[in-house]
Amino acid sequence: GDSVTQMEGPVTLSEEAFLTINCTYTATGYPSLFWYVQYPGEGLQLLLKATKADDKGSNKGFEATYRKETTSFHLEKGSVQVSDSAVYFCALSDLVTEGGKLIFGQGTELSVKP
Amino acid sequence: NAGVTQTPKFQVLKTGQSMTLQCAQDMNHNSMYWYRQDPGMGLRLIYYSASEGTTDKGEVPNGYNVSRLNKREFSLRLESAAPSQTSVYFCASSELGGTYYNEQFFGPGTRLTVL
């Protein structure tokens, strides 16, 4: 079945540092890709999405590009803030093979220090 | 709009006790989901309901039952709780029908401890 693999955390950065969280996927169909964010004590919120190859999703300074050739959807931010401290989940949705269910990676915890 | 609401927020059970987790959404979504979140495991799908009147097993359904009461409400029942069911439970909903991707909206979660 389809799967998502994320880089392991925790990731600790200083404020204003550059962030990359790696995400790769395996899928037999043509999935849509998502990044969700979970702040402490809260549920997951959609951060950004991309629905086809070469699409770039962006929100709140975060970006990710859907790379079909490398089956990747890496999350980047040029300058992180303390308020970005959270757990980030990469996910895919494949209507053809998974009936649209979301398949999640294991999550990457980000801690940003002042 | 409240979005997706879950009750209770916290619960402690003894092994063998039963309980029902409640979930409701006010976005008129067709599909609803129950996940559990365990450290290092991401979110794993327990059961889902693609539309009112239907339910299907997800990745980890053993020990759980669900009821899609109506379009708004989707409950998760633990008939005989076990320590392995200690977890954080999330409900989600989405407008799956008619869209080619599945953006899900999540509730705040229920933290369950089974002693």
Give a concise summary:
The complex is a heterodimer of chains A (114) and B (115). Chain A is mostly beta strands.
Structural account:
The complex is a heterodimer of chains A (114) and B (115). By secondary structure, chain A is mostly beta strands. Helices cover 4% and strands 50% of the residues of chain A. In chain A, strands 2, 5, 6, 10, 11 and 12 form a 6-stranded mixed β-sheet that branches. The termini of chain A are far apart. The relative contact order of chain A is 0.35. The model of chain A has no long low-confidence stretch (mean pLDDT 92). The mean pLDDT of chain B is 91. With 115 residues, chain B is mainly beta. The interface between A and B is medium-sized, with 21 and 26 residues.
Strand-pairing-aware structural class of chain A: mainly beta
* Spatial separation of the terminal alpha carbons of chain A: 41 Å
Q: Give the oligomeric state.
A: heterodimer
Q: CA-to-CA gap between the ends of chain B?
A: 36 Å
> What fraction strand of chain A?
over 45%
Spell the H/E element sequence of chain A.
EEEEEEEEEEHEE
Helix content of chain B: under 10%
The number of strands of chain A is 12
DSSP strand tally of chain B? 11
Whole-angstrom Rg of chain A: 14 Å
Q: How many DSSP helices of chain B?
A: 0
- Poorly predicted residue ranges of chain B: none
